[in-house]
Write a structure and sequence with these properties.
Length: 521
């Protein structure tokens, strides 16, 4: 559950960047476990040192059962294992989003998976509408969507649907899952080991429910369940937990966790009553952002969870928040403004169709898709009103739910016509295969509570909370987390996990309680 373009700026969405120092189709069918003859590589085919990379594309129905809408070309790359003999397995990775690209990150994934690619192949499929696959834009850019007010975000969703028309139904997790399986079938691979990161932890169970006999094992990192809370209460509560944890673990003590949470409560209330305007400059334009309680929620649960643990000795957004919040309470808004501007600098012109359409077609909502708009609003407001006091932590229920760009009320105007007929089922039958679920204990985006629920979707699962890491624990640079993941993909078990106990706490900027603050309006 991450806003895809923000993760893009980090280089690999929320994946393993930290560890990094269309052609003619193949007509021959390979025996299971052996690499087919390589077709002529298209010019976009990546290189991975020490490995052969086969690339191709195949045409898929744009919308199943509607041949009049045509087809869409889906591209893929296979990084072949380096050791002689047949592959022991094939790992399919999805880096998140929805809408993150995979193929252009082949070298990064190859490096991160390391020795596993000695005897395993790596399959990378660019989801429809992204990367090397055919694009299907809707005319809403990242910056327009990201920096807009909540009303403007809802309007952007409606614009996206209108511009896509009946093609909006092409963007579903089920369609992407079936695309992956069509590639698997072409390659002659009997089963896949699935490795999902962030949104990939939503997509891979969809694949497993639709193609259970094709799944060998699953690793989920930065996970959330198919039936997640549409009011985002676990994330709201995790924001306060993260602030308490970074303060408690800071050496020497940089802040008091209870004070940090009280400061957050005060800041949220002030922004609820009086939002502030923050100028944000990207590499293509300048924007004036109305920074509300909802924007604060987004900053704390999503942006502050990113890259946590990647460079624990260096300042991070999460590590700077206790001080920024405390200074805001004292009247100095400059530190918090600076964090907003730094995070916003990555806003891009990337089209958001693969993101908006998937979350609006698939994700669980607090209203009925079949209801007219006025009834949807009634149902949504009733759901908000039913939230118990404190269930959204330091935030109001309305304020926090206006933070997620993939939740709350943002999809309320997504039309019934020309879109997916039903949301993704939340409790499908899933295969009985080994499953490992990893969550960072400083991640408020996909917190431990969601990770545990994601693990409980499967009968043979193991959940690990990784201390001192945020959204997708593989960000840590020592190779401990990826070592656990790759051992699981190879053997079906995590092996020795003792290194997880030694991951260091992040650096936290000290809170100076006695300093006089300058007022910045």
């Amino acid at each position: 559950m991450t806003y895809k373009s923000r993760a893009k700026r980090a280089g690999l969405a929320v994946t393993m960047t930290a560890l990094l120092a269309a052609a003619l189709p193949t007509t021959a069918t390979a025996a299971p476990g052996t690499a087919p003859a390589a077709p002529k590589a298209p010019e976009w085919c990546p290189t991975v040192p020490g490995h052969r990379v086969d690339c191709d594309a195949l045409d898929r129905p744009l919308v199943a059962g509607k041949p009049n809408l045509g087809k869409i070309r889906v591209s893929y790359a296979v990084v072949r294992h380096s050791a002689p003999g047949p592959a022991r397995g094939t790992v399919a990775v999805n880096p998140g989003g929805p809408g993150e690209v995979a193929i252009d990150r082949a070298e990064i994934f190859g490096h991160a998976l390391g020795d596993l690619l000695g005897d395993h192949d790596l399959l990378l499929v660019d989801p429809r509408g992204t990367g090397r696959s055919d694009r299907l834009p809707c005319g809403v850019t990242d910056a327009e969507y990201r920096f807009g007010t909540r009303a403007q975000q809802r309007a952007a969703v409606e614009t996206c649907a209108k511009n896509l028309g009946p093609r909006a139904a092409a963007y579903t997790s089920a369609a992407t899952a079936d695309d992956i399986d069509a590639v698997r079938a072409r390659l002659g691979v009997p089963q896949l080991s699935l490795y999902g990161l962030s949104y990939g932890t939503y997509l891979m169970p969809v694949y497993a429910s639709r193609h259970p006999e094709r799944v060998r094992s699953i690793v989920q990192s930065g996970a959330y369940p198919l039936g997640f809370d549409p009011l985002s209460r676990p994330s709201a509560q995790a924001v306060s937990k993260s602030l308490r944890r970074v303060c408690e673990r800071s050496v020497p003590a940089a802040c008091d966790g209870s004070t940090a949470v009280r400061d957050l409560t005060t800041v949220a209330a002030r922004l609820r009553a009086r939002p502030m305007t923050v100028p944000v400059t990207t590499d293509h334009a300048g924007y004036s952002v109305r920074f509300t309680e909802g924007k604060l929620a987004n900053l704390l649960y999503e942006a502050a969870s990113r890259e946590v643990g990647m460079a624990p000795d260096e300042p991070s957004l999460l590590g700077r928040l206790p001080s920024a919040l405390h200074r805001f309470v004292a009247g100095d808004t400059a530190p918090l403004r600076a964090l907003v501007q730094e995070d916003g600098a990555s806003g891009s012109q990337e089209d958001q169709a693969p993101y908006i359409a998937v979350v609006c077609n698939d994700y669980r909502k607090a209203w009925s898709k079949d209801a007219p708009l006025s009834v949807r609003w009634h149902q949504y407001r009733a759901a908000l009103a039913s939230a118990a006091p404190g269930e959204h932590g330091a935030f109001s229920a309305r304020g926090f739910t206006e933070g997620p760009t993939d939740g709350g009320d943002v999809c309320i105007g997504w039309p019934r016509e020309n879109t997916a007929p039903h949301p993704q089922p939340t409790h499908p039958e899933l295969p009985d295969v080994p499953v490992l679920v990893l969550s960072g204990d400083l991640d408020a985006n996909t917190p431990d509570a969601n990770g545990r629920k994601a693990a409980r979707q499967f009968r043979d699962s193991r959940f690990i909370s990784v201390r001192n890491t945020g959204h997708v624990p593989e960000w840590e640079q020592g190779g401990c987390v990826t070592g656990v993941s790759t051992r699981f993909l190879r053997t079906g078990g995590p092996g020795d996990t003792s290194c997880l106990r030694n991951l260091p706490p992040i650096t936290v900027a000290p809170v100076h309680t006695s300093a006089h603050a300058s007022v910045h309006n």
